[in-house]
Amino acid sequence: MNKLWLFIGGGLGIGLLVMVMILATQSSKNGTTALTSKPSNVDESGKTILTIWQPIDNEDVYKDIVENFESENPNVKVNIVIKDLKTYERESTNALSAQIGPDIWVIPNSWVPRHKDKVVVVPENFFDAEKKKISNLDYVKENFVPIVSKELVANNQLQALPMFIDTLALYINKTVLKEVEREISQAEQPDEAVLNLISTGPATWNDLVKLVKAITKVENGEIIRSAVALGESTNISHSDDILMAMMLQNKTQIISPDHQTATFNLPQTKNSGESYLPGKNAFDFFLSFSNPQTENYTWNEKMANSQRAFIDGQVAMIIDYQYFEQIISQIDPNVTFKVMALPQIQGVSDNETEFKPVDFASYYNYTVPSTSQNQELAWKFLQYLYSSGGIDSYASATSRTKPYIFDDVPQSLKDRSERNQPFRFQTLTAENWYHSKEPNDTVKTIRNMINDVNTQKVDSQKALDTGAKLVTDILRSTENAE
């Protein structure tokens, strides 16, 4: 120790040199070398690490894609990190703020407006592998289903890349319907119309209502067998999406075109000049299934969650997304079910012969954060994904529906109801609504509207008015904050 102090006293430069040598020796003893550490985006072999964060798939989904890309790019290591969806947004935004986030960030469509300042737009001519000067907007319009242009394009720039398009559809528990069919067939005068509907399935909401009356079984005021999970918010998965799908089918304007005002509570005018309340009409119809005073009563707050009730055979039908098929297979692969297209409102148009179905979409997208140090490499990987069959590989591994346009489209309600792949063709007629830059708050508001009526706090119009005001406040506070 005394010798060390003599060195320091003899010269500052020599002292500093000795200190560095001592620290280096200590680091070596601890198994680390602070002076030769590599950047966090380079592994021990010198390969650049491309990090992808996503909350919906396991690593195996990307196995072939990653292996092929790494084979063609031997200096790159793709690292896919699976995140918990419940904490995903908070964890992601914290990491991005600290500039330690991913190079590719997978987010749902409702998050894109909220986080567009955190990501870079898709580079122009991204899809132009053959150098034909095809713009992103032209490619999207010609190749992707319409909702992509509606939701992912802003200021003539593509904000994100769709991985797949999921849509709401009608799940039917075959075991429950066989039980109902047997009961009706044993009656003195079997209802042939209902038996036919059980066989074909409901193409319209009117068809579904007819089945509700035949399927629902109530004993001593308790629902023993439910026909369909509708009317509540607390125990129905995606209750807000289902309600808004009904509103959109009824031609309700949810949000004003300038994104400043919620309008789903307001009257609208038909071409005939007649004034009506499409939002309220859809809301009342949705609520009728949990209202004991209506003929549609078949569900209440005492029922299990809709997905669990369906798997357990407590409800004949639920409305859910394609990924629910995976949940069924994981919980009880013995459940027998079929999936039909989302029921439509017959004759909602002024032109009674017009066939314009409205479906409802939810989907995830690839984005590249502005904080990424590997943006060029990230886009290279995504270009590989979209140009080398990567999307086909992803769709095959996940059974999700690709976001591309196709030609074989149903031309009638009957045709829709008879098709076996509703998740495929519904992408072409799928819509959504602008959730604001605070989508969690607007979703909570919609669910609270449902609950406020069911708990008899207010009537349906008052709930709509209150909900619209709250959503308007959210819109104006966030849209004007830029």
Automatic annotation (TrEMBL):
InterPro entries linked to this entry: Bact_solute-bd_prot1, SBP
Keyword Kinase: no
Keywords carried by this UniProt record: Membrane, Transmembrane, Transmembrane helix
Keyword Membrane recorded: yes
Domain of life the protein comes from: Bacteria
Pfam families: SBP_bac_1
Transmembrane segments: 6-24
PANTHER family (UniProt xref): ARABINOSE-BINDING PROTEIN-RELATED (PTHR43649), DIACETYLCHITOBIOSE BINDING PROTEIN DASA (PTHR43649:SF12)
The protein's name in its UniProt record: ABC transporter substrate-binding protein
